[in-house]
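Ticket #4471: structure output looks truncated?

Reporter: J.K.
Steps to reproduce: submitted the chain below (84 residues) through the standard prediction queue, then opened the result file.
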Amino acid sequence: MAPHPSLKPQSFLRQIVRAALPMGEGILLDPFMGSGSTIAAAAACGLESIGIEKNHEYFLLAVKAIPLLAKYEPGENNGNGKKA
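Returned output as attached by the reporter:
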């Protein structure tokens, strides 16, 4: 969905962000936001988050990718975010 070398599957990241804030309270901080996949996972889970990215190109990529990734519904997949 976003051309970034370290894009992680949304199903995995959503599990991670829920584990990071198990009570659904607090703010998730991603100091190396990249394409925004962790921030999108937090948004999809209804959690607040802050992303920081110093690379302007990745920041612009994240601005476009976060809303798309947050809407994505993983379903069953083969581990890389694509349905088998």
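Triage note (M.O.): checked the attachment and the full token line is present. Strands lie at 27-30, 48-51.
Status: closed, working as intended.
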